[in-house]
Amino acid sequence: MERHLTHHDIGRGDYVLYWMQASQRAERNAALDAAIREANQLHKPVLVCFCLDPRGEGRQIRHLRFMLEGLTETQHLLEEQGITFMLRSGPPHEVVPVLAEDACLVVTDRGYLRGQREDRSRLAERLDIPFIEVEGDVIVPVEVASHKEEWSAATFRRRITPHLDHFPMQSPTPAVTVRGAPTEYETLPLDRPEDLIRSLNPLEDAGPAAFAGGLSEARRLLEWFMTGKLSRYATGRNDPNADVLSCMSPYLHFGQISPLEVALRVRGHRGNGENAAAYLEELIVRRELSMNFVHYDPDYATPACLPDWAKKTLAEHARDPREYVYTLRELEEALTHDPYWNAAQTEMRMTGKMHGYMRMYWGKKVIEWSQTPEEAYNTLLTLNNRYELDGRDPNSYAGIAWCFGKHDRAWKERPVFGKVRYMNAKGLRRKFDAGRYAARFGDTYKKG
């Protein structure tokens, strides 16, 4: 889905500029495809620019290293297609207008978070050539799926499902007719990623993650999921010992693989109807509900986003006594009395990803062990964004808000939580061998 952010005439530039941000890939990228089509019509080459923004996520070493691994592969794939890739340091509103001076028009992908929207608005004010936004990291465009913020997955599912009857297809990336010159433009070298990381003055280092970035690695994991895990997904997805997850979330977060590619691959796999349906529910309904959330709710990163009933019940129980209260440092270093929670925190620190079911338990317990709901919310955002490779993702913001009652209903009232859904260790043990999970991660961090 394309949207014109400016309505100027096409410039007399030397190239079509694609400012890449959300869709960091060279294949099955709707924004890149649009840029190529525009360039072919104008008989111009395509120049792709990525901005290493010193703000926000770019200052988390773990995330930056994963992103640069993906961009290195993207650069090679683009150059094989005859497309020049340029890496520049600086915020987009400073870098892109300079390159746009020699461009016919600018194409970009779509992001849903506040900062991404602000980047596009600031650029639209500065550009005097066409500026086109192309949505390509969802299956159904956000405004098509729903014109308002949805109350729950159930209400959103009813709205988005009719659009899935006409499941979208994506054609192969069109070939360029005018090839670009890779050495013509000044670019930061991707062959020295650690130098680039240091140049951004990173604030902190969460340590290396267990995942390598890039499209080829994402496809390798997807193939592993399709051949060895999908057949057990419906029954095993809530068991962290079952190892049936696709591990696509970091790659989807950085736009290193298209959700449409994943969906078509899963949907086309025969003999896995129940399992495919369960996975597509997560990939499409749950994931795109989170896009709906951050798009329509400006308070998505604060407790102000919660439904009124949740805010009311949490406020009524804010002064309830807590059996345990932990500091941020104690939580970060997995120093609680709960071996299952400690294992989940350690898994996140070690790998950059926590099992989804444990992520819910992890969030609920921080509510129980914090002085106030507001403190718990800030703690969860801090830890999630520091260690999860998909931190600062719509899914992350929706998942944290869910722990406090977002997209959920009221339950039986109890201390601290009020009517917000509660989770405990007994529930874990009923669902899977929690002791086995704790043994796998529980002492690893302390030993290492």
Task: Provide a compact summary of the structure.
Belongs to the DNA photolyase class-2 family. This protein has 448 residues and is an alpha/beta fold. The chain has 21 helices and 6 strands.
Task: Identify the notable features of this structure and list them briefly.
single chain; 448 residues; alpha/beta; Serine Threonine Protein Phosphatase 5, Tetratricopeptide repeat; DNA Cyclobutane Dipyrimidine Photolyase, subunit A, domain 3; 3 domains; 6-stranded mixed β-sheet; disordered C terminus; chromophore; DNA repair; DNA-binding
Shape: globular
Residue-averaged pLDDT: 93
Q: In the CATH classification, which architecture of the largest domain applies?
A: Orthogonal Bundle
Low-pLDDT segments, ≥5 res: 444-448
- Strand adjacency order, main sheet: 1-6-5-2-3-4
Structural class per helix/strand content? Answer: alpha/beta
Compute the number of structural domains.
Answer: 3
Percentage of residues in helical conformation: 40-55%
State the CATH class of the largest domain: Mainly Alpha
- Cα Rg: 22 Å
Order of helices and strands: EEHEHEHEHEHHHHHHHHHHHHHHHHH
Query: Could you name the CATH homologous superfamily of the largest domain?
Result: DNA Cyclobutane Dipyrimidine Photolyase, subunit A, domain 3
Beta-sheet strand percentage?
5-15%
Number of helices: 21
CATH topology of the largest domain: DNA Cyclobutane Dipyrimidine Photolyase, subunit A, domain 3
Largest sheet: 6 strands, mixed
Strand segment count: 6
Distance between the termini: 48 Å
